[in-house]
Structures are given as C-alpha cells and as structure tokens.
Amino acid sequence: MELHARDVRRDVRELGALLGDVLEAQSSAEAFETVESVRTEAIDYRRGDAESRDDLRADLADLPPARAGVVARAFATYFELINLAEERERVRAIREGTQAGTLADSVAETADVLAEAGADDETVQQVLDDVLVEPTFTAHPTEARRKTVKAKLRSVADDLETLDERRLTDREEKAVERDLEAEVTSLWQTPQVRERRPDVTDEALNVQWYLENTLFDVVGEVYDELERELGDQFGKMEIPKLFEFRSWAGSDRDGNPYVTPEVTAETLERQREVVVARYRDECKRLSGVLSQADRSIAVGDDLRERIETDRERLPGVAAEAEERYPDEPYRQKLKLMRERLDRVGDVRPGGYDDADELLADVDAIIESLRANGAETVAEAKVDPFRRRVATFGLSLASLDLRDHQQNHTTAVSEALAREGVDYEAMDEDERVETLTEAILQDDPIVDVSDTDDLSEAAGRVLTLFDRTADWQAEYGVEAIDTYCISMTEEPSHVLEVLFLADQAGVVDLPGYAGIDVVPLLETESALSGARRIMGTLFENEAYAAAVEARGGTQEIMLGYSDSNKENGFLAANWSLYRNQKRLATICDDHDVRLRLFHGRGGSISRGGGPMNDALLALPNETVTGEVKFTEQGEAIAEKYANPRIAERNLEQMLDAQIRARHEAIREPTEDVPEEWFDAMETAADAARDAYRDLLETEGFVSYFEDATPIEVIEELNLGSRPASRSGERTVEDLRAIPWVFSWTQARCILPGWFSLAQGLDAYLDSGGDLDALREMYDEWPFFRTTLDNAALALARTDLEIAAEYAQLAPSDRRERFFPRIESEYDRAVELVTEITERDSLLKREWLEGSLGRRNPYVDPLNLLQTQLLAQSHLTPEEERTLRLTVKGIAAGMKNTG
C-alpha cells in the first residue's frame, strides 16, 4: 500500500522552484538571476566544478545593499521551507516504519525488549509505576523565528501534508498548490526580523501553544499504543500517569528582571483557562457520543450518587440537564461537569477544586460504561479524556520557579538584619545552624509581605515567596511546586529557599512542604562538592523533614551548558556522568529517592543530541524511573510543532525510560570496567587542561569577538533575557546560549568538540590502546553517546567557512588561535572515525543527505555575513541584512544555541 504521493527530493525541488517564482514576481527578474547565480556558484564549488569561491565572494561583494538584502532573504526563506520538507520526510519515515513494524525506539519495540529480557507481568507493572517523564519547556532565547513566520510555515506544512497523504482530484490538487503559492508569497512579504524584543508573556504564550495545540491531543495516543503493545505481550496492564509537562516560561527569574509576579500570575491564570476550556470541549464531544438511555443500561451506584451530589450542588443546572436530556444519565452528568468546569476559579460555588475531583467523575463514567458492556466505547472515547486530565491537571503545565542563589542570600541577609541577626557576617556552619533553627521554630521571624527598606533585589525575592503562597491557594500546589536554585555552591543556598518558603507558609514542618527545593549544580566545584552539599542537607533536621514531606524524593538539577563552557565538551560530559553516579550513591546512603533534572540545551555542546540515546546512556544507579529535562529554543518547534513528530518524540522518551528503568532493576549498579573509568579520568583531565588553556590564553576573548558575530547576536531580539549576566564581555560571564550560537554561526562548533582529541591522545600516550577505546564505544552507552554527539558537532563544522571568519581577526591573533583550532579539529575527526570504525563521521544516512542539501546554500549567507562584519560602518539596510544572515544560517544549521 502506497502511503505517500511524494518524496523529499520532490518537495525540495518544488518548494525551491516556487520560492524562485515568488522572488521574481515580488522583486525582479534581475534579483532572481542574482540569487540563481550565487546559488549555482556555491553548488559548483561544493561539487568540485570550481577551484575556489573567488567568483562567489566577488559577486557578493559587488551587490548593492538592497540586492544583498534580497539574497539574504531568499536563502533564509529557502531554509525555512526546506526544513518543512525534511519534517515531512521524517513523518513519512514514521508512518512507513509503523506500517511495516520496523520503527525503532517505538513502544512496540519496548514491549518486545521487555519480553525478550524475560520480564514478567509484575516486573513490567513495577516499571510502569516507577516511570514518570517530565519534559520542561524553558523560555531560553534561542528561537530565531518570529511567531508570525512560524504560523505561516505551519500552513505550508499543512499543504504539504495534504498533497502527500490525501488522494486528490486534479482540481483539488491545483487548489492546494494555489494555497501553497499564496502562503509562500505571504511569507516573503512578511518581515523575518523582529522589530522588538519578545517579552516574557510572548515566551509563555509560545510554550503554551505547543501544549495546547499539539501535546494535549497526541499524549493520549502514546498511552493507547503502549497499552495495546504491552497487552499483546503481557496481558492487560494498569497504565499509570507516565508524562507530566512543566514550564519555566513566565516563572524563571534567573537573570531576567522582566519576570515579575504579575507575569507569573498571568501565566498561571491563562494556562488554567486554556486547559479548562479544552476539558469543556471534551465533555461537549462526549455528550454527542454517550447518548445511552437509563432504561437500557444500569447506571451504577457511583455515577448515580455523583449525579445526585451535583443536583444538590447545582440544582438549577441539574434541572436544565434533566429537562434537556431526560433518561440520558451520561449526558446529564457531562452537562453538570461542563458547568463545574465553567466555575473553576469563578466566584460562584460548585467548581472543581482540583483535578482529582474531575478525574473521579470521568472514572465513574468509565466504570459505568464497562459495567454495561461498553468497554470499547470507554477505551476509544473516554479513556483519552481521562489520560489528558491525569497528565495536564487543572494547570496545563506546572511552573518551576528559579532564581540565582545570590539573590536569596541577599534577601535573607537583609530580612534578618531588620530583626537584629547579622547573617551576612556568619560563616557557612553558622548560617546552616541559624536557618535550621528558624525553620524548625513555630513562629515566623520575618514578614515576607513587608519589603520596606529592602533593596530591590531582596524585595523581589520576598514578594515572590509571599505570592507563591497565594498562587498555591488559588491554583493548587501542583500548579507551582518546584523552586530551582541556580549556581548552588553551599548547603546554606538550599536552606535559604526552604527558610523563605517556611516564612511565607509554603512550608510548615514537620509534615508539609509545598515545594521541591532543587539545587542546580553546574560548576565543577559544585559537582565535585556534591557529597558535602547534599550530605549536609540530608543530615539536617529541617531539610530531612522537608524531603520526607515531599515523599522522600530529592530532585537535583545538573547544568550541562555552563559545565561545558567551563570545562569543555569531553571533561564536562565525564564530570556529569561521574557525578550523577556520585549523587545516586549519596541519595542511596541517606535512603532518599533521586530524581535527576537534566538541564539540556538544543545543541550538542549544551547537552543536546538524540533524547532516546541520552536516556539509555544514563548510569543505571540514577535511573529511578522519574526523569526531568529541559526542552528549549528551536528544539521545541522541531520536536513538537508537528503532531506526528511530537507523538514520536514522546514515544521515544517513553521507550528509553521504560527500558532504562527495567535494566536498572535487573542491574542496579552499572558494570563498567575500572580501566574504562581510568581511561576517562586521564582523557578528561587532559581535555579540561587543554580547553582551559585555550580560553585563558591572552587575546582569546578578543579573537572570539573578531571571528564570530557575537556582537550582532547580543543585539538580536531573540528573547526577553539579557545575553550576559552582568554586561561584561568575558567567557565566564557570557551566557552559554550566545557563546554556542556565535560559534555555530561561524560554522566552527568548537564547544562541541574542542580538546576531545587532546584528551584521547593523552590516554593513548599514557599507554592506552585504540582497541580499548573501540571496545568502550561498542559496549559502554555513555562513551558511545559522547563520541556520536561529538561526531555530529564535527560533521556540522566547516573549517573552510570558519577560516573566512578567522580572517576578520588581526593576523597575529588569527595565527595564534586558528591553526590551533584547525589542528584539534583534524585530529578529532581522525580519532572519532578510527574508534567508531566508520568511513564518515555520521552514522545516519538521512543526516548526511540533509547536510549535503544544506551546505551549498548556507555558504553564501556565511560569506555575505563575513563581508558585512568586516565593514566598520553599516547603513540601517545593511544592519537588517546582517541580522537576516544570522536568521538564515540558524535555519540552515537547524540550530542556534
């Protein structure tokens, strides 16, 4: 059976031709010919038909400013369209693999793997009960596209789907092609560059869109598929809640002064309104299905009692429901449920107080249907609603609060100083003792509602805790129940947050804690000091009581981005792996359940890469079943904009986590030979030294400024948060996102591989063996994933283009740094291909094909960007063109930071 009418080559060819037609119609024939000439010259060089890029470079240099802007726009728009063509190809692969039963990392494969491993029903149920996957959407500023542009691109994607998956008459096909041309024309006429920086409300709305319009609909399908596949292998299983979505958008205060309590309150209210409206629609839909009359069914005691309770609670609505739906109990109940949903957050009584109440009503309907022989109706029509309620609650996504530890220390110091306590003068032990005593005493010491005479920073913190108590009362504890502390270095940094929560009434020990306090360990000193930090906390009377009140689980966040920026790719990955094992041991020693929160970015150097591989590569000791990780920037759109791809991503996450949890039950401690640990210790130490030596070499920061478009990126209207923590230009102070974004633009993805070769060579020079590295690659998921991710960053690096950017630096700086970077790259490529025993860096053919399609079209944008960067003064039109090249390269590389 033919599932599709097209393929990626046809989509690319036709979209490219359509863009050319639009360009010619909207600009001029001369502009079209210029773009075609540039395109052809770029392809000729890549194919080997031209000896150099001199002609291409000269043609770009001769362009008048207006024409240069058209060229930049043409290539940027081309990539936006080609990304959709590749998205469609991925959907084809998913559908064809599903049909053929060959789709890897699917829940069908999950069931097969469990069965082949000899798992029994009881073990599988234990695994399911343990697993909870928590994608956490952040507002980090790496999404380079405007919301308006994204909306138009989704319309193009819908047209491509129609052409590919539906049987159309010639007339219907022409109508879709006309719509496609209209969308591309509109896209061309729409400004690509934001005229204003998005505010935090925009970012929260962006995250909300994916939750409301994609994930809400597809999550139930993943549950259904898992239930079917496990049922075929093991008999009927009880499928608990396996997903919970969380968000930082509108609540992450670290370095962002624009995230105010008002913004957080608006986000909570809007998310509740959205999810309640979707539930109301579900009830309306079910009312059209569940039309059974009570003379032909036995309603059941539970459902009957619930209808009677609602009749007492809402007599007027109940009478209306009875009159409208006489003898139809399901419809009556659904009408009453709609009314209770309407009253959530309303001044009128009778609304649902929490999601559990709504869930109980849905369960009553399901049980009644099953008791009346309508199992199929319950499974097909009502179970998806139940799973949505269990997953999204009344909050759509729970918000995590986050702030920098220094702000908490400042707030505690100033608040206690008003009470005559000199907290600032205390050493660490004294601070821990003081905070502990204050938390355990019955009466509060400070009034968090009183911010008079406090600094702005301290006032912001106290107001936040005061408002958190109000939000939990209004929206439920589950709506905002996590507080993450950036740059945690000491136990007191964690206790400060617990103290402030206690003073606000969010925590009342012993017995009640309304938040998880989550230390973010992101520096080498914090990670290496994890036993001191966490051990002190677990042995602290107040903190131990808080952990017990939260079910005996401690969430700990690991910062991938800053760890990489501080230590380099190989050393950071090894430090994170080793310290995850250490944290698992610490928690086990104190009988605490660990939940790791992986602060991953979209790029390889910030913890990105295939999620399925990453989850399967975690140390067994850390796989307790619950896992949390950030989703950010353009990765959100790539993973969740298309419903089929969103479903596939959820399926892969679930497959990996179920398999990893089962393996952890079978083998609680990962069996890794000691010599492999020794090899990584040697390699990581040398890699860290080499990386730090590069960063600390005099003039490196200046070279970075010269040889990347960092200054342009800092001025882009990407996100609401400043690019630098303090406004200083140092590698340490620069946020990880613009650091990686800048290197990616220059096609020198240094953060993803630099010092890898020097580290591995140090191991080989110390008596290590290449065959041992090959064995590590074949048998150790951590090492294999690390090397494969480095290979991906190396494959996407183009040192010929990077050399164009290096020419922007003064010759002495260029000669000091670029040969060093080039040498490390060449040796890394050599080592990776030798260890993996592959002819090329990439193991995925489709990715090689994608890079092959993209590279010739990114090159002109890079060359145009370097020419503009070389100019000492740019006109406003040239500034716009420069920003367009950044957008275009980001789209072409499918990555920013």
Note the topology.
Blueprint: H1 8-26, H2 29-47, H3 54-61, H4 65-100, H5 107-116, H6 121-130, E1 132-137, H7 147-165, H8 170-189, H9 200-234, E2 246-247, H10 261-287, H11 301-313, H12 315-324, H13 329-342, H14 355-371, H15 375-392, E3 398-404, H16 405-417, H17 428-440, H18 456-475, E4 482-486, H19 491-504, E5 507-508, E6 512-513, E7 516-521, H20 524-528, H21 530-538, H22 541-549, E8 553-559, H23 560-567, H24 569-589, E9 593-599, H25 611-616, E10 626-631, H26 634-640, H27 643-666, H28 674-696, H29 700-707, H30 710-715, H31 736-745, H32 756-765, H33 770-779, H34 781-795, H35 799-806, H36 811-836, H37 845-869, H38 876-893
Parallel strand pairs: 1-2, 1-10, 2-3, 3-4, 4-7, 7-8, 8-9, 9-10
Antiparallel strand pairs: 5-6
Unreliable segments (pLDDT under 50, ≥5 consecutive)?
719-726
Strands of the widest sheet, in order across it, are 1-2-3-4-7-8-9-10
- DSSP E strands, number: 10
Which overall shape is indicated by the principal axes computed on the Cα atoms?
A: globular
Oligomer: single chain
Using only CA atoms, what is the Rg? 29 Å
The amount of helix comes to 55-70%
What structural category arises from helix and sheet content?
mainly alpha
Q: How far is the N terminus from the C terminus?
A: 41 Å
Average of pLDDT: 91
Major sheet: 8 strands, parallel, barrel
β-sheet strand percentage: 5-15%
Provide a count of the helices: 38
